[in-house]
Amino acid sequence: MDYFEQLGVGRDATTTEIKKAYRKLANKYHPDKNNDSGIDVEEQFQLIKTAYDTLSDPQKRKLYLKSNYTLITDPREVADSFWQSALS
Question: Taking every annotated instance into account, which residue ranges of this chain make up the domain J (predicted)?
Fold first, then answer.
């Protein structure tokens, strides 16, 4: 699933909007606050956390947008960006 959809924000959302959306969803799906056994709240919470971690960091967000929303013509570009993010 798309991280922007996961948090319910647009692709042009600011860091403040992303943080606000994350806090709202984190309160809703946090395992300690949600006792609904019909939904796997821990899994949903982890998905929300992963989306926030990626979108709140400018470098990770740039890499996410580049790798998921653009046509990459040079495979070396993908490998370079992967190793840059992995080593930093």
Answer: 2-68
